[in-house]
């Protein structure tokens, strides 16, 4: 799902770039004006679709349940507790450890979470992730490193607090 959202975002950036180029033409032809209207419609549809995919329900619905800012909506992210791949399988995780992961992922920025999940959960390469997101490979690596550090720090804080309570 995250790959699909990233591809839609890439298409959105391309459509906005094309519309920007048409807007800056001094003497627009009828075809340019028509193209601009079509691109505006495409952009509107892409924004709506991305929001629908991100939320998991119709973004125009007034009474939709939308509490995904606190809770993780994709249970597969619990597979990523050990950042290095030599860790135990998911069967060995306690409920407390799973809660630590949820808590740690909530501390990440949207971009960090997006990159972390693309690379660690979806298994995307740095090159492909940078292409999908329209950013440099080094930026992807920096965001991933920052996300891993935040997760590790949050995990250590949670373990420390647990030791204090025991």
What features would you highlight for this structure?
single chain, 166 residues, mainly alpha, 0% strand
The 3D shape can be described as: elongated
Number of helices: 6
- Which ranges are low-confidence, i.e. pLDDT below 50, for 5 or more consecutive residues? 64-73, 83-90
Major sheet description: none
Span of the ends, CA to CA: 40 Å
Q: Which sequence of SSEs, written as H and E, runs from N to C?
A: HHHHHH
Whole-number mean pLDDT: 77
SSE-based structural type: mainly alpha
Radius of gyration: 20 Å
Tally the beta strands: 0
What share of the residues does DSSP label as strand, in percent? under 5%
What helical percentage do the residues reach?
Answer: 55-70%
Written overview of the protein:
It is elongated, with a radius of gyration of 20 Å. With 166 residues, the chain is mainly α. Mean pLDDT is 77; it is low at 64-73 and 83-90. 66% of the residues lie in helices and 0% in strands. It is built from six helices and no strands.
């Amino acid at each position: 799902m995250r790959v699909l959202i990233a591809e839609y975002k890439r298409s959105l950036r391309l459509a906005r770039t094309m519309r920007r180029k048409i807007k800056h033409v001094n003497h627009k032809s009828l075809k340019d004006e028509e193209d601009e209207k079509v691109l505006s419609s495409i952009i509107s549809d892409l924004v709506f679709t991305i929001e629908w995919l991100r939320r998991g329900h119709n973004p125009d619905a007034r009474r939709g349940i939308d509490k995904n800012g606190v809770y993780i909506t994709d249970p597969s992210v619990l597979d990523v507790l050990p950042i290095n791949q030599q860790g135990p399988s998911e069967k060995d995780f306690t409920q407390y450890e799973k809660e630590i992961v949820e808590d740690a992922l909530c501390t990440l920025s949207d971009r960090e979470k997006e990159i972390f999940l693309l690379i660690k959960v979806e298994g995307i390469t740095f090159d492909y992730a940078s292409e999908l997101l329209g950013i440099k490979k080094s930026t992807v690596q920096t965001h991933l490193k920052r996300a891993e550090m935040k997760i590790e720090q949050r995990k250590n804080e949670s373990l420390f607090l647990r030791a204090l309570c025991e």
